[in-house]
């Protein structure tokens, strides 16, 4: 540095001169200023380029002193929040007083009147350490986890913060209680950038206790934004009455105008919370349900879903509120409730009054002839979803029933001629949200829908199938969460349980049951369509990877015909670029674990998201979409694999994608 020799020469020629090397000037500045003080002495002020090195060296020395208990004049005592044992740390009083407002206040309060705040220390021999007898003791009045105490002390001495996401609530609490503003700022930044739903309870409790309004609003806003995922977590069912009440009170945009919990979603959440501890939570759950705005729920959902729950139908106040919303539909709804009660009584062994006409010989009435019929369930046209169940009769389609709510991208399968519909996207709530619901439809004698226990996870774009009186739900997604979990539903016991998961999370895949095995293939894995073919042995609860398809695909369909499995349509997604699958139909032979191509192109007007099933050895394809969802279709076609021939069938009454196809025996 060119100015240093000049500085040295001044000092050597005139010992009365002083040199001031300050860190306040710019690091890159090389200007040297001369001035004369009040005593007439010349002073040379020169910027010091290594200020940061000086500060760093000082902090390193102080940190070393603290670790080795050198020059420490304060014994810090705190109760470990986790072990409930006392933890002791030796620190420097000036460091804690400079960084922690709480410690500074405590130290000042402990001073005697007129005391300067310093202690006379007598040094003996060559030792320059303060003896332990001269160390002050500062006891922290609130417990802090021991690992957090170590982290905070390290931060005070080094300004380094190795913060794990799971520790953010504890560190934030310590920063607020100890009044360390810079540490609190770091924690708030970490909270905003690494928020997880596990934070809801501890952060909400902390913000309520310490009146941290901004943090309270943030945690409520983020939890409401992720409510669909929050409901699926174990944290949700562990909420206290006060905590779930806060969610109910803030569901309608109290925190932010654009952040709400739709009424149906809040309704489902309350039911799930109550179910976790029915005896103790039943009455409070009814109180929560009375806070909901039922006029914001579509009447079809009110009549076919909401009032079917015992918590609602058994509460006069709730039923009165809902009846006011239903208005002219009240009579029809009450009749439906009565029918549901009668059907439940029949399941319990009670006799029904009157003659019940049965198609399977289970009543005293005559037996009506039935025949297998093709049904198309739900689906959507852009933002408009359907609740219709359509039946193909001759040359036309007609509505035979309505799902209790509008749905698309759900799952559907049949056991003992009863239709089961699960999950999917539901627009009766604000926007499109995946749901966990399961409905059972019995076509005889009353076209009756009954609510079954919800899946453990909300799912859409997943596959639902049946095998040996069990339902199986594979993968799918819920919001931004893509699932690998697989659930099994015992129809007799009415209970869901998890089984072996898929090897990778995926959605928009296809699947089928074939000869006591369950198959899943394709779908979106990460950001790409997959070629995977996976087989689940339900008895052994074990997945096996089979030979892959010849081309990647997702949003396709898969159905067994005799000894083979046919995969039809789909799209190949790769990093956001979508194109039609290069092979329109592939055929898989399970006996030999082999694939072969059937057709490069097909006359079907859809690329994917169509309903698909097998009837009398023919594969039926209904609806769907083309060109990346831009073109929805109403065409229906059937394919005869033996003859390799397509046949056009009557069009659907409306264009649909994301619907499901099943075959049920219906009265002829």
Written description of the protein model:
The chain is an alpha+beta fold and 668 residues long. Among the domains are: 3-49, no CATH class; 54-107 and 131-194, Potassium Channel Kv1.1, Chain A, CATH 3.30.710; 370-667, 6 Propeller (Neuraminidase), CATH 2.120.10.80. It contains 18 helices and 41 strands. The strands form 13 sheets. Strands 7, 8, 9, 10 and 41 form a five-stranded antiparallel sheet that branches. A hairpin with a 2-residue loop joins strand 9 (384-393) and strand 10. Helix 6 packs parallel to helix 8. The longest helix is centred in the middle third of the chain and has 18 residues, at 330-347. Mean pLDDT is 81; it is low at 1-29, 116-132 and 340-365.
Structure summary:
With 668 residues, the chain is α+β, with helices and mostly antiparallel strands.
Number of helical segments with 4 or more residues: 18
Low-pLDDT segments, ≥5 res: 1-29, 116-132, 340-365
Distance between the termini: 101 Å
Largest sheet entry? 5 strands, antiparallel
Based on the structure given, which CATH architecture of the domain at 370-667 is correct?
6 Propeller
CATH third-level topology of the domain at 370-667: Neuraminidase
Secondary structure tally: strands: 41
Let me know the average pLDDT: 81
- Beta strand %: 25-35%
According to CATH, the homologous superfamily of the domain at 370-667 is Kelch-type beta propeller
Name the CATH class of the domain at 370-667: Mainly Beta
Q: Give the structural class.
A: alpha+beta
Share of residues in helices: 25-40%
Q: Determine Rg (CA atoms, Å).
A: 36 Å
